[in-house]
Amino acid sequence: MCKFIQIDSNSNVQFLRYFPSLEACFRKYFKYLQDDFSNYDGTNFIEFILSMFPFWWIILDSNNNFMGFVYLDNFVGNGEKLYCAELTTCFEKKAWGIYVRYSAKFFLKKCFDELGLQKIKVQIYPDNFRVKKLLKDLGFVYESTLKNETVRLGKMQDIEVYGLYRNYYYK
Predict the structure, then answer these.
(1) Cα–Cα distance between 100 and 97 in angstroms, integer?
(2) How would DSSP label each residue in 66-97?
(3) For the segment 19-57, what is each residue's pLDDT rounded down to a tens digit?
């Protein structure tokens, strides 16, 4: 079982309890999450998280152990209706495998049912083979490769785009 604790602007007690694990996980996998143009400059992690309020969640297992995080950004839509969002997630190594698949399915359902999204988009670096496999297992479809789209670690970097549509998810 998994739980998603939404981070709110009041910096609730649960958020503060898990903040050290959250920040450590983010820093550990930063090279897979951000490029050289990231809005996060490494100085104020809380401010970075709150800039995406209310679309950032901490992922816990059934024993309330920190397992990872997920956030949504780059929305398409307006204040009344959201159409699409880009998903970014990261899990501790202990969660890789079945737990990640289960919690991903749970979160995707939440995005479609509670947020009303029609499409969820993921952008990954081509060398992230674990995430590619997971995306395909979850029903995401490869949409394109953006050649030399960004710079990562000082080098030009392609980005692969995958999408999952509500109508496909519920087939």
Answers:
(1) 6
(2) EEEEEEEEEEEE-SS-EEEEEEEEEE-GGGTT
(3) 889 888 888 887 666 776 766 666 777 777 877 878 989
- Sequence-distant (6+) residues with CB within 8 A of 61 are 1, 2, 3, 67, 95, 99
Residue entry with tokens 């809005």: 39
Count how many Cα atoms sit within 13 Å of the Cα of residue 43 in the half-sphere of its side chain: 2
With 90 as the cut, is the pLDDT of residue 15 above it? no
Using DSSP bridges, classify how beta strands 56-61 and 2-6 pair: parallel, antiparallel or unpaired: antiparallel
Angstrom distance (rounded) from CA 67 to CA 95: 6
Residue with tokens 């969820």: 120
CB-based contact 17:74 (threshold 8 Å): no
Q: How far is CA 46 from the centre of its chain?
A: 17
Q: Across the chain, how many H-helices and E-strands are there?
A: 6, 7
